[in-house]
Amino acid sequence: MPHDLIPTLTAARKAHQITQAELAQRAGLSRMTVQRTEGGDLDPRYSTLAEMARVLGMDIIAVPSSLRPSLEAFIQSGGKFLGQPQGVDAPPSVVDSLSRPG
Fold this sequence. Notes:
This protein is mainly α. The protein has 2 domains: 5-55, Orthogonal Bundle (434 Repressor (Amino-terminal Domain)); 65-99, no CATH class. The chain contains 6 helices and no strands. Helix 2 packs across helix 3 (31-39) and helix 2 packs across helix 4.
């Protein structure tokens, strides 16, 4: 597992203001499993992490290592096209058109 997955899940739990016990209950896990996972004392199964992510409204995806820097840059840019000149926005998405009045 990437080294930043568990800290990301922990930060998401805290941002949602959910206790370890609440996360455990909603994910069908023991509080001790969540506590030990977040503390780095447990090498969790994928299914454990996936359930924690599901409760937090997240998905776990596999990204080829070679694409990770580009994906991170894309996310940090707010979803602009990669390699696009500064100040040029991506074309509107279907979501954009659904959220506009009229």
